[in-house]
Specification:
This protein has 186 residues and is an alpha/beta fold. It has seven helices and eight strands.
């Protein structure tokens, strides 16, 4: 069983399967296994009534899927996955940010697919709770990347206020004041 990294630093066994039907499969006819599972948006739409009755089913969004497609279903879902089919495809960051900031999603947000250690810090900043790392990635190395930077400048899902607002509120570390003789020399 593979491992997942939680945004709080916990490493755990991944108990959630990801259903990936082929392009030729009819979404209305795809069999959804029992247990915690993420289904693609097309399967969710085709089988919504039956799947919504289960508490172990979540939906995963492909890069081309708009998060707005799930707005009416957000109260029914406990988990949403965002697929990163390639390391170089960053649309999932925007999807996560939209779900968290625009739509107020508070449930589990899971990064799936080609998720690498290099992405961990930024995925957490966008609001991902769970990172299902690619099988060749080391979760303990990824854990160290969660807080690789001590401060951030931009607002994000993990910090609503940008640095200049935090600094104005005296929550940002202030630079040391130079000694009087250094100020007069300038």
């Amino acid at each position: 069983m593979s491992e997942v990294l939680h945004a709080d630093g916990r490493i755990a066994a991944d108990r959630v399967s990801v259903l990936r039907p082929t392009d030729s499969d009819d979404p209305a006819q795809v069999g959804v296994p029992a247990g915690d599972v993420l289904v693609p948006l097309a399967v969710w739409r085709a089988q919504r009534d039956a799947l919504a009755a289960r508490d172990d089913v979540g939906v995963w969004l492909a890069p081309a899927d708009a998060p707005d497609a799930l707005v009416d279903d957000l109260p029914r879902l406990a988990r949403i996955g965002v697929d990163f089919p390639k390391f170089t495809d960053g649309r999932g960051y925007s999807t996560a940010s939209l779900l968290r900031r625009r739509h107020g999603w508070t449930g589990e947000l899971r990064a799936i697919g080609d998720v690498l250690v290099d992405q961990v810090f930024y995925l957490r900043r966008c609001g991902f709770d769970v990172l299902a790392l690619r099988s060749d990635q080391d979760a303990s190395v990824a854990k160290r990347q969660l807080h690789v930077f001590s401060e951030t400048y931009q607002s994000a899902a993990d910090e609503a206020r940008p640095a200049f607002r935090r600094r104005a509120a005296a929550e940002w570390p202030q630079p040391p004041t130079p000694p009087d003789d250094a100020r007069s020399a300038a």
